[in-house]
Amino acid sequence: MGFVGSTLAAVWLRAGASVTGFDRDSKVLNIAAHGGTHTGEPGVGDAFVVGLNEKRFRLTSDPVEAYKGSNVKIIAVDVGLNQKDAQLSTLISALKNVGKNLVKGDTVIVKPTLPISTSRRVIIPLLEDASGLKVETGFFYVYSPERISAGQAIADIEEHYPAVVSGAGSRSLAKGSKLYSIISGKGVVTTSSLEAAEAEKIFEGVYRDVNIALANEMAKICSAAGINFWEIRVAANSQPYSHIHRAGIGVGGFCIPVYPHFLISTAIENGEEAPVTLLARKTNLSMPHYCVEKVFNSAKTLNVEVKKVAILGLAFRGDVPDKRLSPTYDIIRELKKHNVQISVHDPYISHDKDIPSDVTLTNNFDEAIRGSDIVIISTDHKQYKELSDESFAKIGRKNLVIFDGRAILDKTLFKKIHLITVGVGDKLRPSKLNITNAI
C-alpha cells in the first residue's frame, strides 16, 4: 500500500471493484482505514472513503487474510538498488506469500520496474514452486509496469497514458488486457514478450536520465562561457526536432536514478556496453557537487563569509511530499565538507529520519532562512517561484547569495540580492579561437 499500491487500490475502487489492501506497516493501514493516505496523493483518500462506506475496501496485515476471496493479486512493492544491483528481496518475499495462497484460475499482476528477464527467470518459477500450479494452465501471470507520477497518479492511469501489458502466454496476455481496459482510459499497449515490457519501462527512465544529463552538460558549458542556457533552450526548442530537457541541481525520485543500472546490468550480462547511459548517470550525480562548489566560489568572489546555508526543498520534485533519493541529501553531504550550519525548508515534509541530526528541517520559511549567508533552491515548489527580495528581508544580510538550482525564480524580482542561476554565466567570455585563421 505504498505510492503505487495505494493509487492502484484507489483506481480499482473508483472502477467499482472490491479491494483488499495489504501492508505490513500498521501505521499505513490505520491511515487508510480512516480514509487517508500516507503518500498524500490527490484523490486516493477520497476513493478510500467511498470504498469504506460501501464496504468494498478492507485492509489487513495478514497475508492469508489478504488473499482470501480475491482472484486478482497485484504486487506493488519497491525494487531498488543494492549497490548497483537490483534489490529483489521484498519482491521475492511477496511472491512467496502470493504463491502459497494462489487458487487455480487466479491472475497475478506485478507492477515494479524490473531488470530485463526477471519475470521469466525469477518470478514465474517462484510462483509455480510456491503454488504447485503451472502458469497459463493453473494461474495467469501479467507484467504491467507502473507509469505514474506523484501528484497526478490517478489521472495518469485513468486519462493520460495507455497501460503497457505483457503476459506469460496468450491466455495471461488476454486476461491482463481485459483487466486494464477497465481502468485505462487511453487503452492498452500489449508487448510480444514479458522481456519487452520490462525493457519498455527501463527505456522510459533511461531516456529521461540521458537527456537531463545532456541538458546539465549544456548548462555547465553555458555557465562557463558566460551565456544563458535557458534563453538558448527556448530558442532551440522552437524547432520541432529539438527537445532539450531542463537542467538542474540533481535528479531524484525512485525511478530515473535507479533504472539505468538495470539496463547497464543487462548490457554487461549480454557482452555489451552502455557508455551513454553510464556517462549520463555520472553527469547527473555530479550536479550537487558542481552546484555547491559554484555557489561557494561566487560567495568567495563577493567576500561573503559563509557560516550558514539554507536549502529550500527536500522533496525530489515540486509540490509533492516524496523525498526518495532526493538530490537534497547529496547537497547536504557536499555542504558538510564546508563545515557550515545547515537548515532545510520544505512545505510538505516536517520530519525525516534520513536528515542528519545536526541539520534543521522545518516547515517555517523564516526559521529556515534566518541567519543564512547562502540560500540554495533545490526543489521547484510553487511557493518558491513567488520569492523576491522582500521574501528575504528579515535575514538582514546585505550580501546574501541565492543559488537557483531549478531556474524558477523571476530575476526581475531580485535587485538587492546576488542571484545565481544554474546554467547562467556571470559574464560573457569571448572565444579564444582565431576565427579568421580557422576559416
- The count of β-strands is 15
* Tally of discrete structural domains: 2
CA-based shape? globular
Largest sheet: 6 strands, parallel
Q: What is the CATH superfamily label of the largest domain?
A: NAD(P)-binding Rossmann-like Domain
C-alpha Rg, in Å? 24 Å
Q: Calculate the terminal CA-CA distance, rounded to whole Å.
A: 64 Å
Mean pLDDT: 93
Using the 3D structure, state the CATH architecture of the largest domain: 3-Layer(aba) Sandwich
Poorly predicted spans: none
CATH topology of the largest domain: Rossmann fold
Count up the helices. Answer: 16
Global structural class: alpha/beta
CATH class category name of the largest domain: Alpha Beta
**Strand percent estimate:** 5-15%
Helix fraction bin: 40-55%
Output the strand order for the largest sheet: 12-11-10-13-14-15
